[in-house]
Amino acid sequence: MDKLWTELAAAQQATPSLRALFAQNPDRFAEFSAGLDDLLLDYSKTGLTETTRALLLQLAEATEVAQKRDAMFAGEKINTTENRAVLHTALRNIANTPVYVDGADVMPEVNKTFDALFKFAQAVRAGEITAADGGAFSDVINIGIGGSDLGPAMVTGALAPYHDGPRVHFVSNVDGAHLADTIRPLDPARTLIIVASKTFTTIETMTNAHSARQWIVEALGEQAVARHFAAVSTALDKGAVFGILPERTFGFWDWVGGRYSIWSAIGLPVMLAIGPENFREFLTGAHEMDQHFRTAPFANNLPVLLALTGIWHRNICGHAARAVLPYDQRLARFPAYLQQLDMESNGKRVRKDGSAVTQATGPLVWGEPGTNGQHAFYQLLHQGTAVIPCEFLIAAQGHEPAMREHHNLLIANCLAQTRALMLGRTLEEAHGNPHRVFPGNRPSVTIAYNKLTPRTLGRLIALYEHRVFVEAAIWGINAFDQWGVELGKELATGLLPIVASGRPDQSADSSTAGLVLHLTKKDTA
Ligand code: F6P
Question: Which parts of 160-301 fold into alpha helices (H)?
Answer without folding.
Answer: 176-183, 203-220, 225-228, 236-241, 268-274, 276-295
